[in-house]
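Lab manual, section 2.4: Encoding a predicted structure.

Procedure: take the sequence of the chain (727 residues), apply the prediction step described in section 2.3, and record the output as C-alpha cells. A sample record is shown.
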Amino acid sequence: METNSSRPTTLYGTLLLLVFLVLLLSLNPCESLDIDPRDEAALLLFRSRVQDPNQSLSTWLGSNCTNWTGITCSSDSGKVISVNLTNMNLSGDIHPSLCNLSLLESLVLAQNSFTGAIPPCFGSLYVLKTLDLSHNRFGGGLPDTISRLGNLRELILSWNQDLGGLMPLWIGNFSDKLEKLDTGFNSFHGEIPESLLYLKSLRYLNLEKNNFGGNLRDFQQSLEILDLGSNSLSGTLPCFSACSGSLSVLNLADNYIVGGIPTCIASLEALTHLNLSHNELSYKISPRLVFSEKILVLDLSFNDLAGPLPSNIAEVTEKGLILLDLSHNQLSGEIPSKLTELKSLQALFLSHNLLTGEIPSRIGNLTYLQVIDLSNNVLSGAIPLNIVGCFQLLALILNNNNLTGVIQPEFDALSGLKILDISNNKISGEIPQTLAGWKSLEIVDLSSNNLSGTLNDAITKWSNLKYLCLARNKFSGILPSWVFTFPAIRMMDFSGNNFSGIIPDGNFNLSLYYNNRDFARQPGNISLVSMATVGIKVHVVVAGTNEVGLNYDIIAAVGIDLSGNMLHGEIPSGLFGLEGLEYLNMSYNILTGHLPDLEKMRSLRALDLSHNSLSGQIPENVSGLEDLTVLDLSYNRFSGYVSKKQGYWRFPGAFAGNPNLCVESSTGVCGRDSVPVEPGKTFQEEMVEGPISLPVFLLSAAITFYFSIVSLFCSARARKYILEIKL
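Recorded output:
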C-alpha cells in the first residue's frame, strides 16, 4: 500500500523524466526543419541544369532542409541562408533561379567545373556576405551588378583562367564591409583600381597571376595579406607604412620592380613571409635591413642584388627564420659565420652568386636544416666535417664550385639525405664504405670531379636510387654485377671514366622504368637537348606549422650511359630488351659482337654505339622504331648492305667509318658514307668536335638538373631554378 509520504517523491521523479525528454527532443539532430517552398523550387530548378555524376545532390528530396546536402536554412523562416557545394564534381552553367534565394548570406561553389559567365542576377542577393566561385571555369568579366552587394565581406574568384578583363573601378568602393578580395590566377589586366588602395575594411588582397601593370603603389589600409605576385607591375618598392603593424604576408614576386630594397620594409613588424624574387632589384643590401624575429620566409632570389651577404638579416631567436633564399643574384664575398646563428633555419639557398671563401665551419650548428644549396659560386676548401651536425638534411647541393678534399667517412651521419649533388668540383679520393648508411638517397651526382677507385658495395645499400651520375671522374675496375639492380633507377651515367672488363649480364628486369613503357614515356615531344636533360623540380612547402616539406618530380629521359670507358666484349642481349629505355649510349669503348634485334625497345629515342668494334649487319628493324630521333653507329666494323627502303635516311652520318658497309644512295649505288672528315683526330678531340653530331654529344655528355628552389646538374650547362612556396 502506497503511503502519502512517497507521493511527492514519485511526482518529483515524473517531472524530472519529462524535463529530460524535452531536452532530448530539443537536442535531436534529426529535428525536421521545413525548407521554404519558393527556395525549394529555386534549388530544384538549379539542380536540373547541373551535371552531377557523383549524385552529390541526390539528397535534395522532401521538405526537410536538414537532409539537403550543402544547404542551411534559417530556423525561424526556413529560408535558405547558405549554399556550400564545394568539391562535388559539379559542372554546367549556373541557372538564374539561384538568384531567387532572397535571404542567402553565403554562396560557395568552389572546386567544381561550372562554366559560362557569372550570372548578373547575383547582384540581387542583397544580403550576401560571402561569394566564393574559385577553382571553376567561369569566363567573361565581372558583372557590374556585383557592385550592388553592399554587405559583401568576401569575394573569392580565383583560379578561373578565362575570367578577366579590366578590373572594375568600383571594386574598392561598392562595399565598405569587404575584408577579402581574391582574384588570383585569372586573366584580369590593366592597372590596379585606385579605389582598392583606400578601402579601409580590406584585410586580404590576392591579385596573383594576372596581368596587372603600371607602377606599384602604396596601400593605405591595415592589410594582413597582400599578394601581387606574377603580374607586370613596375616602379620601386614602397614602404607600406599603413600596414606596418598588420601585414604578415607580402608577395611581389615575378614583376618588374626596380631599385633597391628600402630599409623601411624591415619595419613591417608583423611580417612573416616576404617574397620579392624574380624582379629587377639591384644595389647592395643595406646592413640596416634587419627583419624582426617574426620573419619565417625571406625570398630575394632572381634579382641583381650585389655586394656582400648581410651578416645580420634577421633577429636571431630560437623560433625565427626557416627559409632564406638569396640565390641568383650578384652577391659576393664570404658567407658570414653569423648566418650559422639562425638556429631555426630549415632551408638555405645561396646558389648562383659570386661567393668566395670556404663553407662556414660552424654550418653544423643549423641542426634543423633540411636543404642547403650553395651551388654555382666560387667556394673553395673542403666540405666541413661539422656539416654532420645538420642531421635532418634532405638535400645537399654544392655543385659548380672549387671545392676540394675528400668525401669523409663521417658523412654517413647524414642518414636521411635524399639528394646529393657535389658535381663539377675538385673533390678526390674514393667513395667510403661507411656511406652504406645513406639508405634514403634517391638522387646522386658526383660527376666532373677527381674521384677514383672501384665501385664498392656501399652503393648497393642506396636501394631507393632514381638517378646516379658518376661521369667524368677516374673510377676504374670492372662494373659489378649489381650495377643494374636498383628497382627505382631512371638514369645511370658512368661515362668518361676508366671502367674496364665486360658489361655485366645481370638482371635487367628489376627497374620499373627500364622495363615499363608507361612508366618511362614523357608526355609530348621532347627536343634533343631536353632528351639529354635529367631535371628535378623540387617543391619546398612552408606549412602552417612553420615546417619545411621537400618534394620533387623527376622530368627526364630514362637511360643508361657507359660511354667513354674501356669496356670490351659483347653488349648483353638483355639491354636490348628493355621496353622503357629511351636513351642508350655505349660509344667510345671496345665493344664487339653483333647488334641484336631491337624491336622490343619501343621507347628508344637515342642510340649511340659509335666508336666501338661492333660487326655484322645492321638490323632492318632499327629504323622502324617510331620514337627514335638520334642514331649513331659510326666508326665500327659493320658490313653488309643497307637499303634506302629501311628509312635510315632519317639519320645522316649514322654509318660513317664502317668501310665494309654498303649504304644505298639516292642513285641506287653504294655510297661511301664512311670516311672521317678529319682523319687522325685523337680520342679527346673527337669527343669535342669529331664526327659525332652536337645533339649526340649533348646526349652523351650533358646531364642537367634544374630545381624550383634547388638546381642539380650532371654538367655545367644552363640551369633552371623553380621555387614554390605554399602558404
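Check your result against the sample. The mean pLDDT is 85.
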